[in-house]
Amino acid sequence: MSTRRRVLLGGVGALALGAGGLAGRRWYLSREAEPLPTTDAGGRVLWSNWAGNEHSYPARRAAPASEAELVAAMAGPRPIRPVGSGHSFTALVPTEGTLLSLDRLSGLVSHDAAAKTATVRAGTKLSALGPALAAIGQEMPNLPDINKQTLAGGLATGTHGTGKGVKALHGEVTAMRLVLPSGKVAECNRDTRPELFHAARVGLGAFGVISEVTLQNQPLTRVKKVVTLVDTDQVLADWPALAERHRNAEFLVLPFTGKSALITHDTTDEPVRPRGADQDVETLMALKQLRDLFEFTPELRRRAAQAAMADIPPEVAVDDGWKLLSNERPVRFKEMEYHVPIAEQVGALKEIIARIERDAKGVFFPIEARIIAADDAWLSPFYQRECGSIAVHAWYREDHQWMFDLAEPVLRETGGRPHWGKLHSLSGQELRALYPMFGEALAVQRSVDPQGAMMNPFLLKLLA
Ligand SMILES: Cc1cc2nc3c(=O)[nH]c(=O)nc-3n(C[C@H](O)[C@H](O)[C@H](O)COP(=O)(O)OP(=O)(O)OC[C@H]3O[C@@H](n4cnc5c(N)ncnc54)[C@H](O)[C@@H]3O)c2cc1C
Questions:
Q1: Could you tell which of 124, 146, 390 is best to mutate to test the pocket of ligand 1, judged by most ligand atoms within 8 Å of the CB?
Q2: Which residue from 463, 459, 454 is spatially nearest to 73, judged by alpha carbons?
Q3: pLDDT tens digits, residue range 433-458?
Q4: Are residues 147 and 241 in the same domain?
Q5: Residue of 328, 276, 316, 274 lying closest to 144 (CA atoms)
Q6: Which of 149, 201, 392, 445 has the most ligand 1 atoms within 8 A of CB, as the residue to mutate?
Q7: What's the pLDDT tens digit per position in 157-181?
Q8: Distance 323 CA to ligand 1 centre (A)
Q9: Are residues 161 and 82 in the same domain?
Q10: Which residues partner with 120 through β-bridges?
Q11: Residue 310 domain flag
Q12: Closest ligand 1 atom to the C-alpha of 51?
């Protein structure tokens, strides 16, 4: 057991004993939601997403193993919805028609060693892409917090990591092959069908099904990852300088504690020092236990947390970037994330922290802040704008309405654009005002899908 885990758990455990057995009050009272039937009345099998907040019973499922099989599958009942790893929180995937998994369209197709590009089948999971690219001396310039997503699924929602000057995944796409709803195969890049390329790179699975993607990668780099507990006031004050100084920087505000976890990655020549076991479960459950014990006495909660976290040393690991940038997140949650103009990020964060600590005392999950470079994909939340992202989370078993009531108004006030794969309340009219090329992207969508074959109710709300 690492020092961090031992100290945090030990500290909270001692406090729990001292509080006379109140520990885990909600933990023991919590119940799993009633499981959904695995089949519906018509014998159709259940699909649900990772967080368990979205589901459907598709009439047909297909997992094509070749592009030709994918073309054939496009003739299935409507709507046709491609699915990656089901890690989106929004209802992009559910369908009563055809659910198309690209699990069998996986792996490297070809690469150019000199240009450091690679063409990859669209269903490749990021976790499999890391070692496959490493074997040819390449890596993606950045990765998100987890690597369970498929490449196409990640691109479709604007999936990103963090880093000043570092783009989201779709920012490094140079070409794509798509099977259009008509069953025709289209290739696109900056010169060939550029309008399709610009519209479908962050395409929500609304422009057809991507079968292959060409990525601009970089040579393998060794990085040093450091996780440090810092004062939240200090990290908020230092954030612009920290983002500038580190290749990848982010921080997770631990509400009601006055503390944040600062995570940085920088290139290094130091010898390999493999990462330790992920501590997501233990840390989150310790924060939950603090909440359960001290929800109604925030000052005591803060003091207990600070006592439990005192003297926790930084965690350090040195390894290839693709091994360190993503994490395991076994504790299920629901999430809202907006990408706000960078100058607005710290102010919006302070307001959200204040609102949570005043009006949402049940919150115990961290609030995450990252930075993402501008790009030129028409439906990219980072379209022509460097952004600071702000994400709020709720444990999957607990209510998350506070995200919409407390956090979303602050995020919207900044002109923030919601993550396409995470919870938000916006519909077409509001989104159009946030995306200068929204109308152009819609025109491309209509031209490739005039019958609306890809459109489920959620997409109709977004793109109507
Ligand atoms: C624990 C966790 C951590 C996360 N961390 C991050 C993070 O650090 N950064 C971030 O930005 N996001 C993050 N996310 C959100 C996640 O990256 C996105 O929701 C992503 O889209 C999920 O990818 P997926 O493969 O599961 O796709 P799915 O959720 O299955 O599908 C997403 C979209 O992709 C479309 N799609 C799938 N395959 C294709 C295809 N072949 N062609 C066309 N469209 C396709 C689907 O139709 C759908 O519209 C996280 C989510 C979870 C649950």
A1: 146
A2: 454
A3: 999 999 999 999 999 999 999 999 99
A4: no
A5: 328
A6: 149
A7: 999 999 999 999 999 999 999 999 9
A8: 20
A9: no
A10: 108, 213
A11: yes
A12: 53
